[in-house]
Design goal:
rod-shaped; two-stranded antiparallel sheet; mainly alpha
């Protein structure tokens, strides 16, 4: 019985393989050529540029790419602070109000000091003019004394006039 069983098994497997190949090939042909789903063609108009007026609110945490540190060139006292940490700001927004009383006092002191320095420079320039005149007179006197002390034959002619 075993001998008869094997040939039937081979025949069955061949029939099964042929049927499977036929079913697969018919399915592929149907999918390619006989697909009942047809796409509808849609005609669109010309492309136009438009502004969108929708606003979306999304809760999120953003990490800043750039950070700006605001520093004053001198010490100052802040009177009022207009923004808090994390507030959104734009260019030109007021951030804080500074008490300038100390700066104005320092400015007036520096202006007085500048005036005093300018006066002392004027006085020094007047004195330096006198000093230069005194130096010239002293040099002229020394030259005349030197010429008087030398013998006549060693005196140099005066080309200044």
């Amino acid at each position: 019985m075993q001998i008869n069983y094997r040939p039937k098994s081979k025949i069955r497997s061949k029939i099964f393989s042929i049927v499977l190949i036929l079913v697969l090939s018919i399915s592929i042909i149907y999918l390619i050529f006989g697909n009942p789903i047809k796409l509808e063609t849609v005609t669109l108009g010309a492309v136009e540029y438009q502004d969108f007026s929708r606003t979306f609110f999304i809760n999120a945490y953003l990490e800043p790419v750039n950070e700006q540190i605001v520093e004053l060139p001198a010490k100052a006292q802040i009177k009022e602070l207009y923004v808090a940490e994390g507030d959104q700001i734009a260019k030109g927004d007021k951030l804080l109000l500074i008490d300038t009383k100390a700066w104005s006092e320092d400015k007036s002191e520096l202006e007085k000091e500048l005036e005093n320095l300018e006066k002392s420079m004027e006085e020094q320039s007047d004195l330096s003019g006198l000093m230069n005149q005194e130096d010239l007179l002293t040099a002229a006197n020394m030259q005349s004394d030197l010429l008087n002390a030398m013998p006549y034959s060693f005196q140099m002619p005066d080309y200044s006039s």
